Amino acid sequence: MTGIIFVHWAVTALHPPRPWRHCPTCGDARPFLSSGRIRLNANGQRLDAWLIYKCAQCKRTWNRPVADRVPRAAAPDAVLEGWQQSLPDAVRVLEFDHAALSRFATRIDAGDAVSVVKAVTAAPRGDPELATIALTAGMGVSLRLDRLLAQELGLSRSRLSRMARSGQLSFPGRSGTGLNRAVTDGVVALALGGLNGEERRAMITALTCETA
Asked: pLDDT (tens digit, 9 = 90+) per residue, 153-177?
């Protein structure tokens, strides 16, 4: 039986999208950065909420509307608590809501920077002949799959394309390779049998060790 090493990569976007808006102080369109703070106002039984952004250049604030005159009874307690305390998870949901951002911005820079947490879920006793990478993409990940694999495996994108064409690199459950699309949940299979001992060890290290 062919030895297979199973690894899991959890891919998380490091930076939230940056909306571009006209900045009255700068006099031109500028990227705005989330401050990580939510402002909540309760007027009777109605709620208003904003996520506070700052101009990347002059720090002028922009309050991005999140809720407008929402009935208090319509806001789940967990959501309300997240807004009241600007809890990181609540803020992140708002920061990565691309559809909501697009209502207020002429341009949105998603950014490709990600962190990749790797874990071996199963491994053979001997040298593996095949590696399978189970990918989990977090909220807002926009990095292309070929860029992720090139970055983490130390391979050029042209080589990855050749490997995909030859069948050395495959994508179970996908139609086509999807190399030029954003990373999504799925599986990537990599045949290791054609590598020499040194290449195989280097590839297994790349598969299982997080890059600096």
From this structure: 999 999 999 999 999 999 987 766 7
